[in-house]
Write a structure and sequence with these properties.
It contains two helices and twelve strands; from the N terminus they run ααββββββββββββ. It has two domains: about 70 residues; about 130 residues, Sandwich (Immunoglobulin-like), CATH 2.60.40.4070. By secondary structure, the chain is of the alpha+beta class.
Length: about 220
């Protein structure tokens, strides 16, 4: 049997090779061709290697190499898209986002809110309470269609006086034609204070303390 020369052999007793002496891609290709040549020279004449099998093996190697290159390209593309989305979303700082929640931070400006009804209601009632649980203001919107219904609280109580800035809460109650009540999903608007990245997810920090995913934002508002 012919000897295989100039092919690196792993020896666990030797120290790791320095990075400057690492085997190049060209060397690996040459070594592969040497190994293939020796294998052909030493095959059993009565049972030679199947050419079709060899071709299939080489094709498989090329396929694996192509998949690896494709994965690298896709990962690079995804990283570029995430970076672009992050930069685009950064322009939303200072704007108002409407997202699911019941806590309302009143700073002296109008607060946008919304109710999401799965079915039509003969009556939709909204109650705003202060931090002590006392009712500050309440509204009855009457007959309301299914879907998202927007409304705005100007910070006034039932007597028409402006309340003090602070944290309040929103409660929604819907009543259908049969008198059955339900609690629709409530949405509260707040100014975007920060944009952050958490792994592959982009998170939005709101002025009322909420930290939500971008997918949790129902809509962007002009104020």
């Amino acid at each position: 049997m012919s000897n295989i020369k100039n092919i690196p052999v792993y020896d666990p007793s030797k120290p790791p090779a320095q990075s400057g002496n690492s085997t190049s891609v060209k060397d690996l290709s040459q070594n592969f061709l040497k190994m293939l040549t020796v294998q052909l020279q030493n095959q059993d004449p009565l049972n030679p290697m199947d050419n079709a099998a060899m071709t299939s093996q080489l094709a498989s190697l090329n396929t694996v190499d192509g998949i690896n290159k494709l994965n690298t390209a896709v990962n690079s593309l995804v990283a570029q898209m995430q970076s672009a989305n992050f930069m685009n979303l950064s322009s939303s700082v200072g704007k108002t986002a409407l997202a699911a929640g019941s806590k309302v931070y009143y700073s002296g400006n109008d607060v946008s809110m919304a109710a999401k009804l799965d079915t039509p209601a003969s009556s939709l009632n909204a109650v705003i309470r202060n931090s002590n649980g006392q009712v500050v203001s309440q509204f009855d919107f009457g007959t309301t269609a299914s879907g998202v219904s927007d409304f705005i609280w100007d910070g006034a109580d039932d007597a028409g006086n402006k309340v003090s800035p602070g944290l309040y809460s929103l409660e929604l109650t819907a009543t259908d034609d049969q008198g059955k009540t339900s609690s629709p999903t409530s949405y509260v608007g707040a100014m975007v204070a920060s944009i952050g990245q958490e792994g592959e997810d982009l998170r939005v920090g709101l002025s009322d303390g909420r930290n939500i995913l971008t997918g949790d934002i129902l809509k962007w508002l002009a104020f």
